[in-house]
């Protein structure tokens, strides 16, 4: 915990002085769209691994994120209570871990990884994935929401439009019925929690905010009218530009499914334009990455992509104070102020004038503190 911020020399037995001349001390980075359990680019492969093995690989993803300067991640599909517990207890070096359990998908939705020719499910025993579960109907969703909240989920995640990494749902598909979405939002609200929704198209985003979804994931195909609806609702949008760039550059060699690469251009080209529209409508933009498997190392490339349309200070706010607001952790995370948790990074230079200091190859992050302890 940070006690004071000022120019006085620190006092006390454990006080240490760090010479930061020419450097920038800033709040630890927050990634609001992370999948610790996406340990393969083709996530369907993860389903064949033993859970204990997959947990160890997720641990490595988290540890690597921390060493890149991300002192907090919000997991939006796959992360669970056990991972949170191990991270909280310091069993391994990890960012603070906010999780939702497995995301909720309707049958044939973005969480349904089955190709069209694969077995149908009429017996009610839908396959569960690593990142998401197939759940249909108001009753099923209420029960799944209550179960996730019982296990300590910090938010709930639903898929409300098609996505690029599943084989049989077009991007424009409006997923879940109105009643189903409202049931999940209601369950979350009564538990003091909120819902994040995967949504690309303007239609799906407008639906999400109309039903009380608070955090829109991706949002690439938004239009100006819908951006104003999001702003008026006080909701957030969490762009994840780097994942499309990563698929575009390295997708085929890193094992992405053919169907993913085919759908990619639908959303990749509109990412920057979506950010422009959101900014002029006054939408609060978070910062996320959504990287999978071996592509996780590109996590900080998101800073570079975002800075094509935003000032560095705005990108940094997204990755710190705005993401903290999404997590309902204002004043605790994403700031250096009395009462905040002491998660900080020390950068050689000034990222407000040179955002490339946070690029993938940069070695400018000299020190990282997590929970007041220096870990790098
Ligand atoms: Zn995602």
Distance between the ends = 18 Å
* Highest-level CATH class: Alpha Beta
Counting DSSP H or I runs of 4 or more residues, the number of helices is 11
How would you write the strand order of the largest sheet? Answer: 7-8-9-10-11
Secondary structure: number of strands = 14
Q: How many domains make up the coordinates?
A: 1
Q: Any idea what the radius of gyration is?
A: 20 Å
Classify the secondary structure makeup into a structural class: alpha/beta
How much of the sequence lies in strands comes to 15-25%
Tell me what the structure shows.
The protein contains eleven helices and 14 strands. With 376 residues, it is α/β, with parallel strands linked by helices. The chain has one domain: TIM Barrel. A five-stranded parallel sheet has the order 7-8-9-10-11. Helix 2 links the parallel strand 3 and strand 4. Helix 3 packs parallel to helix 4. The longest helix has 17 residues. The radius of gyration is 20 Å and the shape is globular. The two termini are 18 Å apart. The relative contact order is 0.16. The model has no long low-confidence stretch (mean pLDDT 94). Bound molecules: zinc ion. Zinc ion binds next to loops.
């Amino acid at each position: 915990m940070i006690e004071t911020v000022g120019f006085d020399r620190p006092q006390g037995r454990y006080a240490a002085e760090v010479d930061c001349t020419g450097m920038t001390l800033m709040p630890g980075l927050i990634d609001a769209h992370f999948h610790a359990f996406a340990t393969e680019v083709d996530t369907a492969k993860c389903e064949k691994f033993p859970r204990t093995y997959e947990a160890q690989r997720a641990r490595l993803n988290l540890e690597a994120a921390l060493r890149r300067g991300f002192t907090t991640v919000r997991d939006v599909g796959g992360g669970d209570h056990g991972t949170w517990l191990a991270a909280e207890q310091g069993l391994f070096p990890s960012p603070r871990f906010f999780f939702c359990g497995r995301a909720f998908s309707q049958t044939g939705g973005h969480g349904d990884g089955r190709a069209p020719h694969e077995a149908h499910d009429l017996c009610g025993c839908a396959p569960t994935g690593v990142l998401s579960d197939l759940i249909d109907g108001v009753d099923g969703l209420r029960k799944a929401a209550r179960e996730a909240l019982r296990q300590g989920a910090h938010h709930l995640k639903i898929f409300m439009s098609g996505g690029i990494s599943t084989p049989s749902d077009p991007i424009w598909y409006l997923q879940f019925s109105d009643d189903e979405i409202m049931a999940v939002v209601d369950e979350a609200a009564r538990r003091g929690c909120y819902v994040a929704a995967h949504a690309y198209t303007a239609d799906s985003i407008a639906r999400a905010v109309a039903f009380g979804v608070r955090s829109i994931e991706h949002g690439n195909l938004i239009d100006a009218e819908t951006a104003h609806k999001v702003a008026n609702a006080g909701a957030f949008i969490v762009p994840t530009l780097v994942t499309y760039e990563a698929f575009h550059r390295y997708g085929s060699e890193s094992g992405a499914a053919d169907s993913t690469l085919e759908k990619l251009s639908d959303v990749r080209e509109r990412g920057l334009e979506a950010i422009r529209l959101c900014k002029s409508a006054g939408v609060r933009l978070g910062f996320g990455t959504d990287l999978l498997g071996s592509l996780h190392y590109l996590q900080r490339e998101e800073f570079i992509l975002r800075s094509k349309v935003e000032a560095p200070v705005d990108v940094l706010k997204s990755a710190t104070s705005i993401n903290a607001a999404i997590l309902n952790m204002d004043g605790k995370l994403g700031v250096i102020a009395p009462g905040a948790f002491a998660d900080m990074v020390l950068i050689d230079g000034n990222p407000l004038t040179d955002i490339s200091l946070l690029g993938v190859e940069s070695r400018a992050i000299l020190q990282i503190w997590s929970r007041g302890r220096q870990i790098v």
